[in-house]
Amino acid sequence: MIPPKPPARPDRVSLLRHLRLFRQDILSAQPARLYRAWMAEFRTPFFRSYLCNDPVLIDLVLKDRPGDFPKSNRIREGLNPLLGNSVFVTNGPEWRRQRRIIDPAFEGGRLRDAFPAMWAAGCAAAARLPEGLVEIEEQTSHAAADVIFRTLFSVPIEDDIAQAVFHEFRAYQRTQPILNLAAFLPLPRWMPRLHRRATLASARRIRALITRMTERRAEQIARGTAPDDLATKIMTMADPETGHRFSTEEMVDQVAIFFLAGHETSASALAWALYLLALFPQAQDRVAGEAANLPAAADLAVMAQLKFTRDVFRETLRLYPPVPMMVRENRCPEVLRGREVPKGSQIVLSPWHLHRHERLWTDPDAFDPDRWSQDETRVTARAAYLPFSAGPRVCTGAGFAMVEGPLLLAQLVRDFRFALAGPEIPVPVAHLTVRAATGIRLQVTRRKS
């Protein structure tokens, strides 16, 4: 049984048709040949785009010469209303300055310190989950948002502002395509960026709510009553080179990307993991077997007993990488696989295609968590597994995600059985993250003690 995969477009379509497909969903806008190609070129009247699946090229862009391939501003066009000048979209000295302030918050014992908040969020998610026919993406979004607010601001999702931010992000996700028209057209800086009105309004409301949380935390820091969580760590951290700290506006930018990267991606992966376990009941039983031994209260050491659950989550990230494509731009002319690539071209690295590449993976479209215990997979993964990017711009929260995801998955499967609700098959589409086009509905029943 093969998990769902979006249909591919024909090899040749008109530019207008391609743009329309991109606006709807970047996954089904791609031809099937990209699942076996090492490199592909796409030309428009305004720019050239090169999708690179060759592991040598991926290492060149992400690890060997990342400074020569900065993030593309075309992707920034669509995210700017929400993310502003966050670490996700900046380049060069500004990006390095932001990482010098942010990275220490995730180092040392921070993961161990954050584990109780993750555990509490998982317990709350299990207590909140209803039985019967359930739209599972709503539940995983709620759970992932709870983790973010507990680890970042030490407040559960029930906090009024946290709840409002959560609902606004859901609204933003529905209105914002991953690429807006300004990403395709070379518009002058003075021209409007052609965002939907609903997108702009939702982004303004989110930023206003995050500003309230940030200002509240700044007051607590000034009084000496702030909890020692990620927000406090980041807001009090000075750049070791300049002594500069984030202003409120800068902190709002960073919190927005923490929520987008930490909430949307985790919610997406957890929902697909539960669907895959419903599709493959034997794998679900193995996860439930591991989870049955979880103690009433736990610390980080408990993750050592969730090895198969972790492999299920890894396999989910392979099949449904939350961020399906990354776009860089070459600062100077390049020759890639013998092809001349002009300066300013769009260099597309696609975890979606790379993780399912027919020349790199055995049974690339199959769900097989046991592949992660094989030496062959470990070798392939080093070259062709990018759920969190790689190199200097690897996701700061990757370690957090690889604890949060398996932990919440185990806590939910320990208490509930998930089954397919009917013949409807969820079709993956890419908005801000890889989601199901019409949601994922599962039949949920409580397990007997």
Outline of the structure:
This protein is α+β, with helices and mostly antiparallel strands and 449 residues long. 48% of the residues lie in helices and 10% in strands. The protein has helices at 15-24, 55-64, 73-83, 92-102, 110-128, 136-153, 160-175, 197-223, 230-236, 248-279, 281-291, 307-319, 351-354, 375-384, 398-415; strands at 39-43, 48-52, 132-135, 326-329, 334-336, 339-341, 346-349, 416-420, 428-430, 434-436, 441-446.
Task: Write up what this structure looks like.
It is built from 15 helices and 11 strands. It has 449 residues and is an alpha+beta fold. It is 48% helix and 10% strand. The mean pLDDT is 88. It has a single domain (15-446), classed as Cytochrome P450 (Cytochrome p450), CATH 1.10.630.10. The strands form 4 sheets. The protein has a 4-stranded mixed β-sheet with strand order 1-2-7-4. Strands 3-11-8 form a 3-stranded antiparallel β-sheet. Strands 5-6 form a two-stranded antiparallel ribbon. Strand 5 (334-336) and strand 6 (339-341) form a beta hairpin.
